[in-house]
Design brief:
The chain has one domain. It contains eleven helices and two strands; from the N terminus they run ααααααββααααα. It has a two-stranded antiparallel sheet with strand order 1-2. Strand 1 and strand 2 form a beta hairpin. Helix 3 crosses helix 9, helix 7 packs across helix 10 and helix 10 runs antiparallel to helix 11. It is globular, with a radius of gyration of 21 Å.
Length: 381
């Protein structure tokens, strides 16, 4: 069974690589004079994709071979490992192509990691809405991350190629990032979302016969001799659909700090790989980070303005260290301010709506559903 799964995953990656290979060749060397630009041999691309695939397979078949509830301690250790791997790859870029390439990689990694926190909270809401058992959530996120990597690859290579051929696309991307910045900064976390009315959910139920019964970690099951999609399949499709929305935001943002496809894809991939562990660590803690959306809005506005300044008539290129500093400081201030406000509210006995226990989190000491320090007697446990 493990060998068959490995062969399937490797085959899919190989097929995707063959599809995007023409885009790789078209985008190669398209980085502007103010960005890192270098020739990447196909073996380097194959090695990068091979390493990512191997880590995914090992994570699925060895580390998480059996379905179980991931504890906060386990999620903390795994998050530290994934972040360390991502940071270590920056050193590879440093020794391979110098400080400019490494700086662009770290800037892209930090942008994607910060924007992905919002993605994690959306996952928490989706899992809560469909009452997905915690021991099955990891398997859904595994295939969700795999699909996200493929989607990001397509978006990245298409985006780089568009910018190279049509410089005016810079202004569209920049304006879109400014619009998204305002939208994220003003986002109301307390607004309830009915995912049953989501377009992706309606499409799934129209195209696939479905059942409301979970059958372990299976995406499909058989009832009365009929093959049906389980709720896990519907949740997976919904997660993939939301990732398309997040990719539309994050890919243009990273293209504002780097144009080298290898750097952009690698920074995206290594930031995304650790999202599953980050979800089990932070899921249900939206209320602790009340100012995060404002911080993310500021970051997107900064990279949007940066992208607009790159083109004519301005032709102003902000150095990579400046971009890194602005992104890091903004994120740190947003998190620090959020935690301080959260601390003041706790002292006053105030519980922000975003941290009230979710309906499927019966046990407050379990991760991925509710912050154990955020319980209230005013709502049924």
């Amino acid at each position: 069974m493990p060998g068959r799964v490995t062969a399937v995953v490797t085959g899919i990656v190989g097929a995707v690589f063959n599809v995007i290979r023409p885009l790789l060749l078209a985008a190669e060397g398209s980085a502007g004079k103010n960005f890192a630009s270098f020739d990447v041999p196909l073996w380097a691309w194959a090695a990068l994709i091979g390493v990512i695939t191997t880590m995914l397979v090992v994570d699925l078949l060895l580390v998480h071979k059996t379905a179980h509830v991931i504890t906060i301690k386990e999620a903390s250790i795994e998050s530290a490992i994934w972040i360390s791997i991502g940071l270590a790859f920056g050193l590879v870029m440093l020794f391979w192509h110098g400080g400019q390439a490494a700086g662009e990689y770290y800037a892209g990694f930090l942008i994607e990691k910060s924007l992905s926190i919002d993605n994690v909270f959306v996952w928490a809401v989706i899992f809560s809405f469909f009452a997905v058992p915690r021991q099955f959530q990891f398997r859904v996120l595994f295939w969700g991350i795999f699909g996200a990597l493929v989607l990001r690859a397509i978006f990245i290579f298409a985006g780089v190629t568009l910018i190279e051929r049509f410089e005016w696309v810079l202004y569209i991307f920049g304006a879109f990032l400014l619009y998204t910045a305002v939208k994220i900064a003003k986002h109301d976390e307390s607004h309830a979302v009915d995912y049953n009315n989501n377009i992706a959910m309606k499409a799934v139920r129209k195209l696939f016969p479905t059942t409301d019964r979970y059958d372990g970690q299976k995406l499909f099951t058989t009832e009365n001799g009929k093959r049906l999609a389980t709720p896990l399949f519907a949740v997976l499709v919904l997660i993939e659909a939301t990732d398309v929305v997040f990719a539309v935001d994050s890919v243009p943002a990273i293209l504002a700090v780097s144009r080298e496809p290898f750097i952009v894809f690698a920074s995206n991939a290594f930031a995304i790989l650790g999202l599953r562990s980050l979800y089990f660590l932070l899921g249900g803690m939206q209320g602790k980070f009340r100012y995060l959306n404002i911080g993310l809005g500021v970051i997107l506005a900064f990279v949007g303005i940066k992208m607009l300044l790159i083109g004519k008539p301005f032709e102003v290129h902000l150095p990579t260290p400046v971009s890194l500093s602005v992104i890091f400081i903004t994120l740190a201030v947003a998190i620090f301010a959020s935690l301080q406000a959260d601390k003041r509210d706790r002292a006053r006995g105030i519980i922000p709506p975003g941290d009230l226990p979710v309906s499927d989190a019966r046990d407050a000491d379990q991760p991925g559903g509710v912050d154990p320090d955020r319980t209230t007697s005013g709502r049924e446990q």
